[in-house]
Design brief:
Helices cover 45% and strands 16% of the residues. By secondary structure, it is of the alpha/beta class.
Length: 197
C-alpha cells in the first residue's frame, strides 16, 4: 500500500478507511498527517472467534494505531439463543475499546436476524453503551435498507449512532438511509456518493 494509492482512493478527509487488521499499521503510516481515521474489523466476517480472541484483536488494532473498531456479533451465539455469551462478548469488546479511548461499532448482520433477535441485540448494545451499531459486514446477508435503519433508530437511544453498510451504491440510496436515521454510511462507492454520482 502506498501513500499515492491512499490519496487517489480517498480524497475526502472526513472518511474512515476500514482495513483488515493485518494492514492497520501500514494504513496508519500512509495516512500520517491527514485527517482520515483508520478503522479495522474484529471477528470478521462471522464473529465466531472467542471473546478473549476478539479482545486481543482490539488491543492489537489500537496498539497499531486504529481509531475505531467494527466488531462482528457472534452469529452462532445469537442463533443458539446464548444471550449471556452475546452480552459478555459485546460488553467485553466495548469495555476494552472505551478503556483505550476508541470508538466501537457492533456489526449486527441484520439481514440474518429475526426481529426478536434484533430487539435483544439492541438492548444489549444499549446496556453496553456501544458507540454505533452497524447493519452489515456487506458480504454475508442483505445490506443496509431504509426499513431496517428506521427500525434500529426506533429501538436504540440517541446516544447510539447507526452505520448503514452494505449495498449503498447510489446517492439516492444514501440520502434515504440518512433520512431514515443513519449517522454514517459504509460503502465502497463513497467518493461517488459524496459527489452525487
Amino acid at each position: 500500500m502506498s501513500k499515492a494509492y491512499v490519496k487517489r482512493r480517498n480524497p475526502i478527509a472526513s472518511f474512515r478507511f476500514v482495513y483488515l487488521l493485518f494492514y492497520v499499521k501500514d494504513a496508519v503510516q500512509c495516512l500520517e498527517g491527514s485527517q482520515v481515521k483508520v478503522a479495522t474489523v474484529i471477528g470478521f466476517p462471522m464473529g465466531y472467534a472467542t471473546t478473549p480472541a476478539k479482545v486481543e484483536e482490539i488491543k492489537r488494532a489500537i496498539d497499531e494505531g486504529a481509531d475505531e473498531v467494527d466488531a462482528v456479533v457472534n452469529i452462532c451465539a445469537v442463533k443458539s439463543a446464548n444471550w449471556n455469551y452475546v452480552r459478555n462478548d459485546i460488553d467485553s469488546m466495548t469495555r476494552i475499546a472505551h478503556m483505550r479511548g476508541k470508538v466501537i461499532k457492533v456489526i449486527l448482520e441484520t439481514g440474518m436476524m429475526t426481529p426478536e433477535e434484533l430487539e435483544r441485540l439492541c438492548k444489549i448494545c444499549t446496556d453496553s453503551e456501544v458507540d454505533f451499531v452497524k447493519t452489515s459486514t456487506g458480504i454475508l446477508a442483505a445490506g443496509a435498507d431504509v426499513d431496517t435503519v428506521r427500525w434500529l433508530r426506533a429501538h436504540l437511544p440517541a446516544t447510539i449512532k447507526i452505520k448503514a453498510s452494505g449495498g449503498v451504491r447510489s446517492n439516492q440510496d444514501a440520502i434515504k438511509l440518512v433520512e431514515a436515521g443513519a449517522d454514517r454510511l459504509g460503502s465502497s462507492a463513497s467518493v461517488q456518493l459524496i459527489k452525487g454520482a
